[in-house]
Amino acid sequence: MIAWRVLTAVLLSALVVDQTAGQPPGASRPGPAIRVDLNEDLDCMRAAEQLEAALAEAAALNASVVVLELNGNAARLDVVHRMAAALREARVPVAAWLEGGDDARVGIGQLTLSLFADRTIAADRLEVHGSARGDIDALAPDKTAWDGLTVELADWLSLRLGRRGANSDLERVLTSPPDGLWLVNTGTGARLHVGADRPDGATDLTTLADGVRTVRMSGANLRAASLADASARDWRSAAKSLGITSERVERRTIGANLRAARAEAESLLDSVEAPLLAADKALDLADPKSRSVAPSRYRSAAAEARASLARANASLDRLDAILLETPEVFRTPAPGQSKAERISTFGTKWRSMIRAKRDRSERLETKARLFAGQ
Prior knowledge:
The protein is an alpha/beta fold. Helix content is 47%, strand content 16%.
């Protein structure tokens, strides 16, 4: 088994260094190495779409390798499943750099994704902490086929773990809440044991808090269990370990995340109020039938109001685009709404607030048209 792992590591290293591996037929020279940063929690499907686009771009550029830098602390299983499918179908060599970010920590979903790379490098100070399932799953659509996704992802993982010489039972920990995970010293090394019963002399790699059991593993645990091929101090060391010696490394960022989308949605919804008030103020003139105001004032007021309404509508259009790209926002409380309310009410409240702004804008536009015709 050890010999096979060594051979596998050598072959994968050659895959990264080989200047023609993974290239389309007829390609004459390799493209750049592409470092793709996944810095955020994987809490929206838009992130998976962006990864698919990054891999397609890498294939079009004949990238010599794509390195996924993984930093987030949480991940939805359905998002991980879609990303794993994209990595399985990638037409370029892929490596993973489990960096961990400022807190030197990644979640179970990030570790799972790294196993679909050809090689995995873990930061020296890395800690894996979390569970494959959790509250974050509530952001997924109501009719998500969790059982089917879990079974398929587990099947894919069993194959990947087997190729790495790792315990294939780990797929249970990577796709479901753990019932137990133990580090067992064998005298010649270490292995991970999955199950509720503790083997003799084993170290517990789970913690229990508020009734929730989570996994806690170090970078050393990952290497001992054949979940990581090597460790590195920083990106420079990781790149060297992967055979990336050229300065020609391009960088991409998978920036989609619920936190940013929700913050922008709230900001846009709030920003609409000022131009609507400005338009209302500009149109605060007597009814044209009264003949008490000069026609030119009506036309001037209409132009001023329409400029304000254009700003309001631009914000509303951008808000609609965000909610189409990241519909998970609808599964979070609308401004002023309590987290304690039912999740089904969140989307209703968001839509009601947006519709009210649209209705005000349309009423003001009708009045502006009347004034413009004077």
